[in-house]
Amino acid sequence: MRDLADGVTRFQREVFPARAELFAHLAAHHAPHTLFIGCSDARVGPELITGSEPGELFVVRTAGNLVPAYTPGSDGVAASIEYAVAVLGVREIVVCGHSACGAMTALAEGHDLGTAPAVAGWLRHADASLARTAPGTDVPTLVRENVRAQLANLATHPSVARALADGSVRLHGWVFDIATGRVEELAATDRTPSHA
What pTM was computed for the model? Predict the structure, then answer.
């Protein structure tokens, strides 16, 4: 905890004063251009890998960068998506998977999650990802198919479906490689990757 407290002290003493004008603006304006849905993994920092400033990204992080398909009712992920699209008017949505993802590794390798029932239940949102792959698929392939499946789930959310229909938002699938820093953008219509 001391490292975090030291970080706050450094922020208040060095970073904030140099960026005081930006933070004064952000105190009254919230207009991110992109909804970034990524994994909760501590090694994947959305602002760091995109070079974004405070206020540019609206970030949702879940284990396995999973986006449950829309169902009526109260849901934190759905509420965040709806707020970003319908209220903030983001123009881009990125679903970003990553190399060495623990959630995808557990699924690909059939790990026993009996002692982690909440995790096992949450990973059911990746059933479509598993269905897109052959038995025994490697983790990198499952990571890519999971990003595609989560993009499909994202499109089931009414706010996203409306924004897609009127052309006010675009969806992107990315895979971040931790070891190299490369970001692979998955092609929207086929399985040919490009690199960002």
Answer: 0.92
